[in-house]
Write a structure and sequence with these properties.
Family: Belongs to the TRAFAC class YlqF/YawG GTPase family. MTG1 subfamily.
Protein name: Ribosome biogenesis GTPase A
Largest sheet: 7 strands, mixed
Number of domains: 2
CATH superfamily of the largest domain: P-loop containing nucleotide triphosphate hydrolases
Function: Required for a late step of 50S ribosomal subunit assembly. Has GTPase activity.
Keywords: Cytoplasm, GTP-binding, Nucleotide-binding
CATH class of the largest domain: Alpha Beta
Radius of gyration: 20 Å
Strand content: 5-15%
Structural class: alpha/beta
Order of helices and strands: HEHEHEHHEHEEEHHHHH
Number of strands: 7
Helix content: 40-55%
Pfam families: MMR_HSR1
Bound molecules: guanosine-5'-triphosphate
Distance between the termini: 20 Å
Length: 290
């Protein structure tokens, strides 16, 4: 696949990664948050190195944005790798109880570990961590049962650490840890761009929109995703299911109908509609068994 180039600054990433490791060192429990539409692209290859032997809960947020069928397939895939993700919708507060219970359950092994190292027992310290825009702040607010962090604010890891006391003997860091996007893998970078996890300055919006149409026309061959292709065809009045020439021809035709022929504006509209769930539940990644 000819994936559009997505730019980033390596120096910026190295600095952000260093800061993140410093924060991780101060906690006992890492609540890693990923995006249900792209559970692999929102996982970072260095994460295991950063979290070392700390307790780790894998949360997949935005469960409302994919189908129950997709969630089932992913569960089978993760379980086969001995991983047990907890799915949630932090916007509506679904799945939060299970995350709190899992954090509470991890207390005893963290306490035992501290005791075995001759350390005092204290409330365990937890950090939510993940790529930009996966829903970390929304999750913190749900876990804390109050608004402690602005859900759209760009939270940094540099300011003073402030802990929120939870009822269960857990102190939760009020700022999320932001993982810098891993853009070496251009396929993941494209998925992150589609889900708005990378600033628009880093990519050419029209080529990303063309890739999106390519993905939809491929998904169209899968009967479980058929609804999305129909929904998109109906919404814009340009058929993506049959008589489909090429992704750029589709964008041109849609642009002539909706944005006075402006393909850039049409690309923007298409991606915003996807991100705002106007196009149905579309998973950009599905499990691949090898
Ligand atoms: N549909 C849906 N939207 C969500 C969910 N969780 C968060 N959002 C929305 O996604 C947007 C981003 O959420 P945040 O909580 O700010 O994401 P974040 O990971 O803290 O983002 P950064 O601060 O950029 O790192 C907000 O508009 C939230 O309302 C979810 O489970 N489902």
């Amino acid at each position: 696949m000819d994936i559009p180039k997505i730019q980033w600054y390596p120096g910026h990433i190295a600095k952000a990664e260093k800061k993140l490791s410093e924060v991780i060192n101060k906690v006992d429990l890492v609540i890693e948050v990923r995006d249900a539409r792209i559970p692999l692209s929102t996982g970072h290859p260095h994460l295991n190195k950063w979290i070392n032997n700390k307790k780790h809960i894998l949360v997949i947020n935005r469960s409302d944005m994919v189908s129950p069928h997709t969630i089932n397939s992913w569960n089978k895939w993760f379980n086969a790798k001995d991983q047990y993700p907890l799915w949630c919708d932090a916007k509506r507060g679904i799945g939060i109880k299970e995350i709190c219970k899992s954090a509470k359950d991890s207390r005893s092994s963290i306490d035992d570990r501290r005791l075995s190292r001759g350390m005092r027992i204290r409330p365990i310290r937890a950090l939510t961590l993940g790529f930009p825009n996966v829903g970390k702040s929304a999750l913190i607010n749900r876990i804390a049962k109050k608004r402690v962090v602005d859900s759209a604010r760009k939270a940094g890891v540099t300011r003073n650490l402030r802990w929120i006391k939870l009822e269960s003997g857990i102190d939760l860091l009020d700022a999320p840890g932001v993982i810098p996007p891993n853009l070496e893998d251009q396929k993941s970078a494209l998925n992150l761009a589609l889900c708005d996890d990378i600033g628009e300055a880093a990519y050419e919006i029209e080529s990303v929109a063309i890739e999106f149409i390519k993905i939809i026309s491929t998904l169209n061959k899968d009967k479980n995703a058929n609804i999305s292709a129909k929904q998109i065809s109906n919404r814009y009045g340009v058929d993506i299911t049959k008589g489909f020439k090429s992704p750029s021809a589709w964008i041109n035709e849609a642009a002539s109908k909706h944005t006075s022929g402006d393909t850039r504006r049409m690309s923007h509209k298409l991606l915003e509609d996807y991100r705002n769930q106007m196009l149905g539940k579309i998973a950009l990644e599905v499990p691949l068994w090898n």
